[in-house]
Design brief:
Elements (H helix, E strand, L loop, with lengths): L5 E7 L4 E4 L1 H7 L3 H4 L14 H12 L4 E8 L5 E12 L5 E9 L3 H21 L4 H16 L3 H7 L1
Antiparallel strand pairs: 1-2, 1-5, 3-4, 4-5
Helix pairs in contact: 3-5, 4-5
């Protein structure tokens, strides 16, 4: 990503894309018509551990904001890293009706630190097999948090 770019997308409560700004369309490599109405995981890179997305969904479905470094994949197979901030969108009765994600260019040093963590999580998921993958990846992350004495959010902002 370019330093001053912001990728913005909105989804409904089930993760279906309802809006993508021009920079999202540019970096994803998909046309607007290809993106709208599809699951947001259309840009999920296979190097990303499933446990990372489980944590994201658990957090935003609980009505909280979520921050993370994420490796995304464009339509042509290339990738780009982002620092993402996902927030739930509420109706007048405080029911979650969707999510807004704003992504910006991550610091290179942060990506260099988070990439090996994601690799360890992914390797644990692959060793555990599909049924136990998320638990195995989560265990790696929880181990790291225990070693550092930080919460997940503290760790993300410390990178």
């Amino acid at each position: 990503m370019r330093e001053d770019d912001f990728i913005v997308s909105k989804t409904n409560a089930k993760g279906i894309i309802t809006y993508g700004n021009p920079i999202f369309i540019e970096f994803s490599g998909y046309s607007e018509s290809e993106l709208l109405g599809t699951q947001h995981n259309i840009v999920r890179h296979p190097d990303m551990p499933r446990a990372a997305f489980k944590l994201a969904w658990d957090t935003i479905q609980a009505g909280q904001e979520f921050f993370a470094y994420v490796k995304n994949m464009a339509k042509d197979g290339s990738f780009y890293w982002v620092f993402t901030h996902i927030t739930p969108d509420f109706d007048a009765s405080r029911n979650i009706v969707g999510y807004t994600s704003v992504r910006r260019c991550p610091r290179r040093e942060a990506v260099a630190k988070v990439e090996p963590v994601y690799r360890q999580m992914l390797e644990a998921e692959q060793r555990a097999g599909a049924r136990d993958a998320i638990g195995a990846g989560t265990a790696v992350l929880l181990d790291l948090l225990k070693q550092t004495g930080m919460s997940y959010e503290e760790l993300v902002f410390a990178l």
